[in-house]
Design brief:
Elements: H1 9-13, H2 23-36, H3 41-60, H4 63-72, H5 76-88, H6 91-118, H7 126-131, H8 136-154, H9 162-169, H10 172-183, H11 187-214, H12 227-259, E1 266-268, H13 271-281, E2 287-295, E3 302-309, H14 317-329, E4 334-341
Parallel strand pairs: 3-4
Antiparallel strand pairs: 1-2, 2-3
Helix pairs in contact: 2-5, 3-4, 3-6, 3-10, 4-9, 5-6, 5-11, 6-10, 8-9, 8-11, 10-11, 11-12, 13-14
């Protein structure tokens, strides 16, 4: 008896040669993915720990700690489960996977908010800024991460590549930046990081569904009513989300092209440091603050203060500002005070 087709006909016409999964392999795949999408206490505990670890790494600007958090975060499991459910038409698995992913995201967000509250007035780090300015390249990373993860799970011989996928996908760090940013008056960074997170989630699910389809995973209970309908609706909703998310991503690309600088040379200082400097300058006549920022290209901590003066700057102003920054911020950073003089037209 002729075996049912498990691959798209257009791929067969193109000479598609990738091996499809046999019946037993598909059963084993479903069992494996369902186990990773189950959730439970262990899943939530790992989300708490990975989110706490990622938050600390982001606040400390430690790339190694952030990478460690990516490796132990269990979020990829339910996302791959949602992708398999889309390819298979398994509504129960899809709902369960989405619910488990939502639980993990909620727990991770709450943990990041707690870490943000415990670390008020943080200074934006390079790790945080990296998640606060997503562009179209991040969408590409998410798509390829979903491809690789689904293919590695579907082809057991490549399962050792999943650690690299976890690092590439970077699901927990942008989630933590959302919580940290919202609790420390950084709404722009939090919003951009939320866009990056949502982009990763949608792109991984869609790309995983595509790969499982290419590997021969086909719908269950195809002849039963409603299966094709909900699959089509789910695909359309996710594609629509992806199109909407493309707008801010493309906008960021255009902005980076206009600026001509992908990574900023300076980063903001903590809010309380800037407030102290501004309060001091209110008592200095004819002198105003143009900007205060940390210089990112220097190996040691350095803060630059740019002043605009319409008259003579009182003696000792630079020394007072240096002393105030050292007292409020700590760490004895190098403080450079530069004065620009404004010439008033007669």
């Amino acid at each position: 008896m002729q075996q049912p087709r498990n691959r798209p006909r257009w791929l067969e016409r193109m000479g598609y040669q990738l091996p499809i999964l046999e019946r037993d392999d598909r059963k084993a795949l479903l069992k494996h993915v369902e186990a990773g999408s189950h959730g439970g206490v262990d899943y939530l505990v790992m989300m708490v720990l990975s989110s706490g670890l990622a938050s600390l790494g982001l606040l400390e600007d430690s790339t190694a700690v952030v990478i460690g958090a990516m490796l132990v975060a269990p979020l990829m499991g339910p996302l791959i489960g949602a992708g398999l459910a889309l390819a298979q038409g398994n509504l129960v698995l899809h709902r369960n996977s989405i619910w488990v992913a939502f639980q993990g995201l909620l727990v991770g967000f709450v943990m990041s908010v707690v870490m943000g509250v415990l670390n008020p007035g943080f200074e934006t780090t390079l790790e945080i800024e990296a998640r606060g300015n997503p562009d179209i390249l991040d969408l590409g990373v998410a798509v390829f991460s979903g491809f690789v993860a689904a293919y590695a799970i579907g082809r057991p011989g490549f399962v050792n590549t999943l650690a690299g996928v976890a690092i590439a996908a970077a699901l927990v760090p942008p989630l933590c930046v959302v919580g940290i940013g919202l609790t420390n008056d950084q709404p722009f960074v939090a919003a951009n990081s939320a866009i990056l997170l949502l982009t990763n989630l949608v792109a991984i699910i869609l790309s995983a569904a595509m790969v499982f389809g290419l590997l021969g995973v086909r719908g269950v209970d195809i002849n039963k009513g409603g299966v094709k309908s909900w699959k089509r609706s789910a695909f359309l909703i996710m594609i629509l989300l992806l199109v909407i998310l493309l707008l801010p991503l493309l906008s960021n690309v255009a902005e980076q092209k206009r600026r001509g600088q992908n990574k900023p040379l300076t980063y903001p200082v903590a809010a309380h440091v800037q407030e102290v400097v501004e309060a001091y300058l209110e008592s200095v006549p004819e002198v105003s603050l143009m900007t205060i920022a940390r210089v990112s290209v220097e190996p040691t901590s350095s803060i630059s203060i740019l002043l605009l003066a319409t008259g003579k700057v009182p003696v000792g102003t630079k020394d007072d500002l240096t002393r105030l920054v050292h007292e409020v911020r700590g760490g004895n950073p190098t403080v450079r005070v530069v004065v620009l003089r404004e010439v008033l037209e007669q």
